[in-house]
Amino acid sequence: MGRAVVIGAGGQIGRPAVQALARDGWEVTAVSRGGGRDEGWPGEVRTRRLDREDDAALGALIGDGCDLVVDLVAYGARHARQLTGLAGRIGAAVVVSSVSVYEDGEGRGFDTMGEPDGLPRYPVPIGEDQVTVAPGDASYSTGKVALERELLAAADRLPTTVLRPGAIHGPYSPLPRELYFVKRNLDGRRRRALAFRGESRFHTSAARNIAELIRLAAARPGSRVLNACDPLPPTVSEIAAAVDAVMGVETETVLLDGPAQASVGSSPWSAELPVVCDMSAAERELGYRPVVSYQDSLPETVGWLTGRLSEQDWREAFPTLARAYPDLFDYAAEDAWFGARPA
Length: 343
Known about the structure:
The protein is α/β, with parallel strands linked by helices.
């Protein structure tokens, strides 16, 4: 296939992406901040250390040229300009963005969810032609739009496939939403509450399915934007039941008709309205077929989470998750709400 450079190779998406490209015949250089070798990578994969903010180091890494750059950590217009500035030495790129770039057409998006009447009302499903928030540096979402716009504006110099995943899941995640149920089960909590009757649906994206899209896009260079999600996104109740099944536990779930009561009933998926993406463009343009379902991928995730929790407190193991959801395990509030502590 040629030479491929994967930036962010040590992360959640990078590991399966490196494996997928190597299996497809690419000569892969796996780039990360640590530069270490993951034992699961094929022996022919090269490893390099890189500070993503160092323009000269990135240029030296690309050297005389490569056929493909996969950038899993790019953010904002500056990173886009880093890549487009090397356009003469890069054949094509695949860059990961996010479904959080979408706006509902009335000024509502992920950034307004906490505001009065700020909950976005997206079409079901969301197509790639849905309006996005304005580019800028005010938030994660606006930064990703700025990244996308710069890259797509340089389509004649650097053909780039932009991928928009949803709730990414799998081992090595800095934001493992499944921890919400895994830790409760490990702590012996056999009763839980779920807001909005457990029907919240935030389209999931297995790291392995994103890697498959990267593999397919690498073989078909072009300038395009594609959603990057799983088939049949589960509801939060279905996720809870699937985690229970993997862990072999039985729980009682109380379904709230409306929103969470403070922290009680709130989960990392909780939203009144669905976020579901249309995957037909990826199927049509790349021949995409998911390599794994949410349920089939779950045992690997649960095993990894269980191992991490045996070594560290959850806040130390997953500081990003702890900052995003500080009240994720407010058991005292739950016990008070249920009216009694569990036996």
